[in-house]
Amino acid sequence: MKITLIQPQKKKSGIIAEESWNLTRPFSLFYLAASIEKNTDCLVEIVDFEQQIYNNDNRKIDDKIKNTDSEIFGITCTTFTRFEAVEVAQKIKAYHPESLIVVGGVHFMFCAEETLQKISCIDFVVRGEGEKTIISLIEAIKNKTSLNLVKGITYRDNHKIATNPDADIVEELDDLPIYSEFDWNIYPEYLFGSAEKIKAISIMSSRGCPYKCVFCSKAGMKYRLRSPIKVVDEIEYFIDKFKISSFNFLDLTFTANPEHAQKICSEILKRKLKISWWCESRVNIPLELLDVMKEAGCKSLVIGVESGSPKILTNISKKVSLEQVVAFCKKCHEVNIECNAYFMFSHPEETLDDLEATEEFIFKIRDYIKGYSIQPTMIFPGTEIEKIAKEKKITQPNFSWYSETKYEINRELGQFDNIPLFIDKLTHKNMKDFMNGIGIKESTYTVSKLTFKEIFLKTLNAIVDRKSSVKYIFSIKYIFELLKRKIVKIFK
User: Which residue of 52, 56, 315, 366 has the fewest C-beta atoms within 10 A of its own C-beta?
Assistant: First the structure.
C-alpha cells in the first residue's frame, strides 16, 4: 500500500502573506512518515506544495496530484491554509476517486464534524497527535476490520458522522523515530530572528504546553519532554548529515520547564558543540537560565507579552507580570540574546485605556528588545476565545470555518483576511488609530537611533524593496520632516 502525505501551499491571502515565507520543513508529516515506515510495510511519499519548485503554480500542483497514485492521501493544514487543503482534497478525489483522503492537523482536530459535513471529498479526520491513530487506521483499512475500534478518528458510517473516542497521546517522545529519507537541503529555512540568512533546521524537545492562554488552540495540551540526551543526539546527527550548525526549537515554549532547558544547554556545552539557535520562552523563569542559554548558543528568542495592561494579562490567563517582562528583557539585553516580543490587542474587555497602557509598555522595554510585532487577536477553532466570541455574538450564529468570507478590516490592519478577528469593546477606527499611532512612534524611535547615513540608506531600501520584512509605514515626506527636526535639534 502506498501513502502520500501532503502539505498544501500557502496562497496569498492578505498583506502579510505577500511577504517571503521562512519555509520550514513539514515536521508533523516527517513524524507521521517515520511512524508509518517503522510500524507498517507501506511505502510513504511526502509531497510539500510549499517547496519552491511548485511556487504556487496550479499547473505543477495539478500535474503532481494527477500523476501520484496512492491508496491513501493524508493532508495536514492550519486554519490559515484550510481552504488550500480543501482544494487539494477536491483535486485528489477528482483524479483518484477510489483513493481515501485523511486529514489532520490543529485546524481539522477542532472542526472534525463540520469538516465532514461541509467537505464531501474528505473521508477521515484524525484528531490530535496522529502517530498512533494513523497506524491503527491503516491496519483497519488494509485488513477491512471495524473502524469503530480506531481511536482518534471522525468518519462517515452509513451516511452518518461517527466520532470515536480520543486516541492516547504519545507519552514517550523519545520513542518517535527520525525521518531522514527526505531531501532536507531543498528548504530555505533560516535561523528565526536573525537578520542574516543562516541556514537552520528545526528540532523538537517537547510537546504540549502547561499554560492555558485563552487565545491558543494548544492551551492545556499535556506537556511532555524528550530526554536532553536524545535532543542533543539529534542535533549532532543533523550537524554530521547536513553540515548545519543552526537550529530552531519548535517547542511551544522551550523554557516551560527551566530545569529541562538547563539540561539541554548543559549537554550542548558538555559536547562542545558550536551552534546557534532560536526558541520561544516564557518570562517567568530563573533569569540565570539566560546566561546558560547564551553560553550554549542561544542567539535569539521570542516572548509573548500580549499586553501592557495588567487587567488584560489576567483576562487572557497569561500568568505573568509586567515586572517579570521588564526584568527578562533587561537580562536578555545584558547577556546579548536578541529578544523579540509579541503583542496582541482587541482582547476580551479591552478598552482604549488598555491600548494606551500597551503602547506605553512597548516603548518602556524598547531599548532592551531587538524588535516586536503587534496584531489584533484572531479567533481560532478550539480556543477559549472562540467560545467567548460565540457567547458575545462576535461570530454569527451560522458562522462556518468553510465560508470563504474575506474580512476587510484584516487587510487594513495588515493581517490574513480569512480569519475572523475578536472585536469586543473597540471599534475598527480604534484599532486602525492604534496601529497607526504605534507605527508613527516606532518611526520616531527608529530615526532617533540612526545616523544620517543610516536614515538615507534605510529610506532608499524601503522605496526599492517593497517586500522588505521591515515595513516603513511612514511617508517620505514624514521622514524628511523628522530629519529636519533632528537637524534643528542638533543646531539648537
Answer: 52
